[in-house]
Amino acid sequence: MKALIIYYSLNGNTDWAAHYLAERIPADLFRLEPDWEPPKSGFFKFMKGGQAAIRGKKVTLKAIPDPSAYDAILLAGPVWAKTCPPALNTYLSEHEGDLAGKNLLFVSSSSGGDGRGFFRRIMTLLPSCPIATTVSLRNPLQRQEESARQLDGLIQVLNPSND
Ligand SMILES: Cc1cc2nc3c(=O)[nH]c(=O)nc-3n(C[C@H](O)[C@H](O)[C@H](O)COP(=O)(O)O)c2cc1C
Questions:
Q1: Could you tell me the distance, in angstroms and rounded to a whole number, from the CA of residue 124 to the centre of ligand 1?
Q2: Which of 55, 79, 107 has most ligand 1 atoms within 8 Å of CB, for mutation?
Q3: Which of 54, 87, 115, 143 is in the most buried spot, having the most CB atoms within 10 Å?
Q4: Which ligand 1 atom is nearest residue 109's CA?
Q5: Domain span including residue 119
């Protein structure tokens, strides 16, 4: 089983989770690099980022991985305004066909809320791809022990023989 981890992170939480997974499963790691992001801190981070997420803003991604050589694809990103950030929104709306027939697993990273709206949005972007596994992390950089336990559960789903 070879997995591809595709993720976006503005402030490092999803980045931590993606690296945690990549260190424990045979996987290639690919970070989506959009040509637009809100500021990394301050009021405008939430205002501009939130508006962009709600409006389904499209961004240009610097490079796109080819998932054809992989059995499983893990997609991870932060929850923005209860939905997907533009980098993931753009990737999923433009590459649904690449993901058809793959074992898809999704990880969200949020703060006060959870990943329900994020996963709902993904389901609407990928109508032909059943989503079997989702993991909703909360502030993983601050709560590494609990987040690691959740991610270990995801690894078990991928490699059920690994005890
Ligand atoms: C624009 C914006 C909107 C956000 N909206 C939400 C939200 O609706 N619910 C929530 O729980 N966290 C929200 N957050 C917090 C992030 O989801 C959370 O801090 C996440 O762990 C950040 O991941 P990252 O460090 O990989 O970017 C928002 C953050 C940003 C920048």
A1: 20
A2: 79
A3: 87
A4: 21
A5: 3-158
DSSP string computed for the chain: --EEEEE--SSSHHHHHHHHHHTTSSEEEEE--BS----SSSHHHHHHHHHHHHTT----BS----GGG-SEEEEEEE-BTTB--HHHHHHHHH-HHHHTTSEEEEEEEESSS-SHHHHHHHHHH-TTS---EEEEEESTTT-HHHHHHHHHHHHHHH-TT--
Q: What are the tens digits of pLDDT across the range 111-140? A: 999 999 999 999 999 988 887 799 999 999
Q: What's the CATH number where 129 sits?
A: 3.40.50.360
> Which atom of ligand 1 has the smallest separation from the CA of 8?
26
User: What's the pLDDT at 163?
Assistant: 55
- For residue 80, the CA-to-ligand 1 centroid distance in Å is 5
Whether the model clears a pTM of 0.90, i.e. scores above it, the answer is yes
